[in-house]
Amino acid sequence: MTIKYRTHYFSDAKAKGSFERYAYSIFGLDFGRWKDRGLWDDQYIPFSAFVDGECIASICVFPSEITINGRREKWAQLLTVGTLPEYRLQGIQRELWERAHDWIKQHCQLTFLFTDDSAAGFYDKLGFKRPAERFDRVKYSSSSHSDMSRFRKLNVASDADFAILNRLAHSREPVSDRLGFENPNLLLFMLLYPHQEQLYYLEDMDIVVVAEDAGERLRVYDIIAERTPRLEDIDFFLSHFQKEEIEFMFCTDRHDVSNPQKIEVTDSILFVTDEFQLDGDFIFPATIRA
For 156-169, how does the pLDDT look when each residue is reduced to its tens digit (9 = 90+)? Predict the structure, then answer.
């Protein structure tokens, strides 16, 4: 078996098509909506292994501008990491990581990714560390009545609604100065796929709130705006859900949250390289958790 390692090859339509088949086979991931909106650009960088012209393993690097404690850095996120079953346990992923890491060291300050228990051991062996993340859960009492005339759900299939998302994704403030990110195309990927049913447009404020009714609580994943609002400014929206508690899946340093209960994240595992340093409680924003 001859393995060919390739990177920066998405201009090769045949190789890109093979990568898409690999991604669908491993993750059930169809990039169609992302491609059709013109969002797949050369910032999404593959490091892949091919056998007989077919992609059999890959690591993709997607750099983001990160705000951490008010300063800006460039961090590399690892995405679509996997190997077809028949090629596993042959050292291919380690070789891909070495190649990707060489590129990252030249262009970014550190590396991070999200995974689950099934893959955690691999990143432990590579020397990644896994800090605990905690999000804020707060008691909530509305001071106003819901006004449904001031917000509506967005439909990602609508060109007009997508234009709103696209504009705000490119002009937004970071949701947090403690830990925020700027990567419009990755944000739009998350809005087109996992969060597509959770998008609310507050029209007179020109704000998108990514939120869902999580049973006993309201869960807010992101607030996308050119100027981040105070929670009291969007109370007319929050009160619509009639919940006594709200969970914020991002750091709330810009949102006047009082007496939060800190809840550990358990549905995914954050891995970071040694360069990551952030004291105290934090959570990476939900809309970067691809």
Answer: 999 999 999 999 99
Its sign, for the CA torsion 140, 145, 146, 149, is negative
Q: Position of tokens 């705006």?
A: 225
* Pair of tokens at residue 96: 């891909």
Element (H, E) at 221: strand 218-224
Structural domains in the chain plus CATH codes: 4-132 (3.40.630.30), 135-265+283-288 (3.40.630)
Strands 261-264 and 134-139: antiparallel
What is the model's pTM? 0.95
Q: Is 280 helix (H, G, I), strand (E, B) or coil?
A: coil
> Model confidence over 247-275: pLDDT tens digits?
999 999 998 888 999 999 999 999 999 99
The owner of tokens 């609002």 is: 229
β-bridge partners, 49:
5, 57
Cα–Cα distance, 100 to 7 (Å, whole number): 9
Helices (H), 172-234: 184-192
DSSP character at residue 255: T
